[in-house]
Structures are given as structure tokens and as C-alpha cells.
């Protein structure tokens, strides 16, 4: 087990006595090491966001609604033009000031990056500036521009961060309450409180983060007090830890049984209903996930708290008798729980009267057949909210006629019309209702049978206060995080 900085930080707390009690540091065991040297233009941006060292123009609230951060206000000037007023009095960690010009340069660096940040896939965007604001122009009508600018990959950095050949180094260059002072490769990172933060002064003196890929080691770090916060405690370890230290956070990820609607026996809506009735969600939840997941009532789970309250019952066709119908069921081994789910689904379908052939491979070896519609059924763990905090892009990708990830081979005019309406609707309650209307249209086709919604288990030592338990995994430690007296 390799937790050197965590142990050193804990020792410092003990040796320093009262001074450290007043200004404590916090030790964190992170799930994965950086993939790209903590470049904010990669998925490493989410670490910078979780440490509150990098900030974006916009942040999302629990419902996914944009809120001010480095932008104080914004206005949609026309279908393709937005104006964002930039907060005054903000300093970067190197002491330089935040300006509209600097914001535009950061955003344009992301727009022109190769590869482009995932949030900008398929999006044409350009940014200009004046004395007070930045002007964002898109190539098409896009009501999700504020949501896109909330992505950690669109964080704003000082000029010093940007080097040659697109390299971005985030040390001493963000605007958050903690300044990233050390990057120790794939081993650890060190952050200190930023005394000139524009918002509330951080309660912690700093953060010491170790990357601990082994789940058993992360569980041990929490049990022994070596780490005060631990990402992604494995289910097998959770049972060994004091329940008061374990916090289950719903994830925007749904385990779904995709049903081939274009070819094979399940083009019959009645047989699709028979499949849906046969799936025993409760058994899967109890046995494979040991109760640490949520039974699905729709495509969108409790990580989107507004979804369930907007739903109405879905009307399905009457089920047909399987009567020995032969079907193929596929999944992959990369997620250890999915083959176990496939076994239980296969058993349930067999008992219902189907004859089931399973095909389980590594994802790299099965993806092409999955997307080509080779299988009658396919089990997939799918993220339902991508970087924008909005599920429409996932629904379009998976269930529209032109969807690039359309495992179900679905092409339904009613579904496409509902998705188009949702995509055009401004963020807010009206968009949420349009999304649930689209979900209902998808569910009614029988193209997808959601099984359960996953959770992530976050460990917090006794006394840790105000750590964030964020389903989107954007926030973890903030200026409010501390140790209770």
C-alpha cells in the first residue's frame, strides 16, 4: 500500500498540535492517477474541480441549473450568441487579475485543443471579449451553452498555464480557494489555501492527495485514519468499515437492458414486453450489488432528483408468450458486475419461456457487434448525464434514428420528435418536463429496460464536515470543508 503523502500529512497534524488544529490539512485517497499530467483539457480536469483549485464561468446546482461562478450574469442575445459578464476583483493564483481577455483566451484554448474537450464534441464555438464580458458564438442554436461552460474542462487559467504545443500546466494558475503547488506525477498532488481567494477564505490550510488505485488500500486508509476522505470505497471494503464513515452517493449511471427493435424476434412489441416483465430487478440488486444501488423506475435515476416527481405511468403493449423463442444476450467483462447481471437475466428469461444464448467478451472485442445490432439484448452500464449536466445528448445518442450509440437500433418518429423538442427547450423546469416526456416515449417502445442506478461509496473520517457528495463527481472539497470541533 503506497500512501506516503497521506501518512506524512497525518504526522504533521499530530506533531504541530494546536496550530494544525486551528488550520488543519486534509488527506485524500483518490481513485485514479492523472491520465494527462493534470491537464484541464482532459478528464483530469475533474480532479482539479474536486480539489477546488480550478473554476469555470458557470456552476450547476443539484438540479443541473446553471448558477454564477466566475461569470456573474449572462444573456442570450440571439439563437447563436451569448454574453457573459465577468466577475471583478478575482485574482489568479500567480497574482495576475482575471479579465474578459484572459477568459476568452482560456476558452479559445479549449475550443482549439486537439483533441477537443468532450463537452464540445459536435459544437462549433468562438469567443470574443470586450471590457466587461465575453461573447460566445455558436454555429447553431444551442440553449445549453451555459451548461457547457460549467464543464471542468472549460476552467479558466492564468496565462502562465499555457505553454507550447497545447500543453496546459495548472500549478499556481487557477482561481479557486486552493492553489495547486505540486504535481508529483502519478503519485500525489499538494494544494495550499489561497489567501487572496475572491470568495470565502478556505477553512482548511490545504489538501494532500494520494492516488490509491487499489480498492483494498483505499478502504484500509479510511479504517486506519491515514486518509480523511476516500473516493470510491469498494462494496467489499464497505462492510469492513464503520457505517458512520460510509456515504453512498447516487450516480447518473444506469444499468440498462437494450432491446433490438429492428431485427430478430424482439421486433415484436409483445415479446419486448415479455422480456421487461421477466427481468427481476430486486434479485439483481440484492445479490450482485449487495443492496448498494437503486432500483430503476426510468432511464434517469436519483442523481437527477427532479426526474421521479415528473413521471407518469408508461403504457406498454400486452406481453406475448415466448414459447421457446431463441434470443441472444450480450454484455462485456470490463465491468465485473455485468456478467453476473447477465447470468441472472438469462435465468429469468429462461424461466419465462425464452431460449437464451449468452455472449460475453471484453468491451473492445464486442463493441462493433453491439452497435451493429448483432444481439437481441445487450446489458450496458451507461452514463446518463454527460459533461453538460443534461441527459438529452445521451438520449439522442442512444435512441434517436441518427444516434451514434443506438444499440437498440430504434427509429421511432414519436421518440425523435420528443427528443427534438427537449433539445430546443431552454434549461429549467420546462426542459426537465420535456426530457421526461422523451424518456416516456423511449420507454413505451420497449427499446430499453432500465435495471438499476449505480451508487458510488465515499468514505469520510469522523469529524470531517461539509465535504461534497456530488453525483456528477465535480466537487469534493470546497472552501467550507473542515473538521468539526
From TrEMBL:
Localization of this protein: Periplasm
CDD domains, per database record: PBP2_NikA_DppA_OppA_like_3
Signal peptide: 1-21
Domain Solute-binding protein family: 65-404
Main location: periplasm
SUPFAM superfamilies found in the cross-reference section: Periplasmic binding protein-like II
Keyword Signal appears in the UniProt entry: yes
UniProtKB keywords: Signal
PROSITE patterns documented for this protein: SBP_BACTERIAL_5
Pfam families noted in UniProt: SBP_bac_5
Family assignment from sequence similarity: Belongs to the bacterial solute-binding protein 5 family.
Name of the protein described by the UniProt record: ABC transporter substrate-binding protein
Organism in which the protein naturally occurs: Paracoccus onchidii
Amino acid at each position: 500500500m503506497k500512501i506516503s503523502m497521506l501518512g506524512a500529512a497525518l504526522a504533521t497534524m499530530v506533531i504541530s498540535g494546536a496550530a494544525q488544529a486551528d488550520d488543519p490539512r486534509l488527506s485524500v485517497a483518490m481513485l485514479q492517477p492523472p491520465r494527462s499530467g493534470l491537464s484541464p483539457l482532459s478528464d483530469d480536469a475533474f480532479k482539479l474541480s474536486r480539489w477546488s483549485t480550478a473554476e469555470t464561468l458557470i456552476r450547476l446546482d443539484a438540479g443541473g441549473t446553471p448558477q454564477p461562478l466566475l461569470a456573474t450574469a449572462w444573456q442570450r442575445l440571439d439563437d447563436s450568441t451569448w454574453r457573459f459578464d465577468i466577475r471583478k476583483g478575482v485574482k489568479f493564483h500567480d497574482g495576475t487579475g482575471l479579465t474578459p481577455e484572459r477568459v476568452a483566451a482560456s476558452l479559445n484554448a479549449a475550443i482549439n485543443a486537439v483533441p477537443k474537450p468532450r463537452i464540445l464534441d459536435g459544437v462549433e464555438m468562438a469567443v470574443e471579449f470586450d471590457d466587461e464580458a465575453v461573447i460566445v458564438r455558436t454555429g447553431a442554436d444551442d440553449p445549453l451553452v451555459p451548461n457547457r461552460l460549467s464543464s471542468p474542462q472549460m476552467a479558466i487559467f492564468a496565462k502562465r498555464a499555457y505553454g507550447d504545443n497545447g500543453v496546459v500546466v495548472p500549478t499556481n494558475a487557477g482561481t479557486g480557494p486552493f492553489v495547486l503547488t505540486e504535481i508529483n506525477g502519478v503519485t500525489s498532488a499538494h494544494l495550499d489555501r489561497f489567501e487572496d481567494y475572491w470568495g470565502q477564505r478556505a477553512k482548511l490550510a490545504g489538501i494532500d492527495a494520494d492516488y490509491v488505485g487499489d480498492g483494498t488500500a483505499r478502504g484500509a486508509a479510511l479504517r486506519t485514519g491515514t486518509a480523511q476522505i476516500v473516493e470510491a470505497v469498494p462494496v467489499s471494503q464497505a462492510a469492513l468499515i464503520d457505517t458512520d464513515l460510509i456515504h453512498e452517493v447516487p450516480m447518473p449511471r444506469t444499468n440498462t437492458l437494450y432491446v433490438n427493435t429492428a431485427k430478430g424476434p424482439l421486433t415484436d412489441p409483445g415479446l419486448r414486453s415479455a422480456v421487461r416483465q421477466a427481468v427481476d430487478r430486486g434479485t439483481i440488486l440484492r445479490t450482485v450489488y449487495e443492496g448498494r444501488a437503486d432500483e430503476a423506475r426510468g432511464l434517469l435515476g436519483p442523481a437527477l432528483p427532479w426526474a421521479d416527481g415528473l413521471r407518469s405511468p408508461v403504457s406498454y403493449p400486452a406481453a406475448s408468450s415466448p414459447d421457446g423463442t431463441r434470443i441472444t444476450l450480450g454484455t462485456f467483462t470490463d465491468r465485473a458486475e455485468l456478467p453476473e447481471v447477465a447470468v441472472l437475466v438469462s435465468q429469468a428469461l429462461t424461466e419465462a419461456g425464452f431460449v437464451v444464448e449468452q455472449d460475453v467478451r471484453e468491451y473492445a472485442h464486442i463493441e462493433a457487434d453491439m452497435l451493429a445490432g448483432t444481439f437481441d439484448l445487450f446489458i450496458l452500464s451507461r452514463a446518463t448525464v454527460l459533461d453538460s449536466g443534461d441527459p438529452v445528448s445521451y438520449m439522442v445518442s442512444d435512441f434517436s434514428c441518427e444516434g451514434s450509440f443506438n444499440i437498440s437500433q430504434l427509429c421511432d418518429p414519436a421518440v425523435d420528435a420528443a427528443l427534438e423538442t427537449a433539445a430546443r427547450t431552454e434549461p429549467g423546469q420546462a426542459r426537465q418536463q420535456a426530457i421526461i416526456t422523451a424518456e416516456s416515449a423511449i420507454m413505451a417502445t420497449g427499446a430499453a429496460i432500465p435495471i438499476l442506478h449505480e451508487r458510488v461509496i465515499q468514505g469520510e473520517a469522523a469529524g470531517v464536515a461539509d465535504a461534497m457528495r456530488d453525483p456528477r463527481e465535480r466537487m469534493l472539497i470546497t472552501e467550507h470543508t473542515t473538521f468539526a470541533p
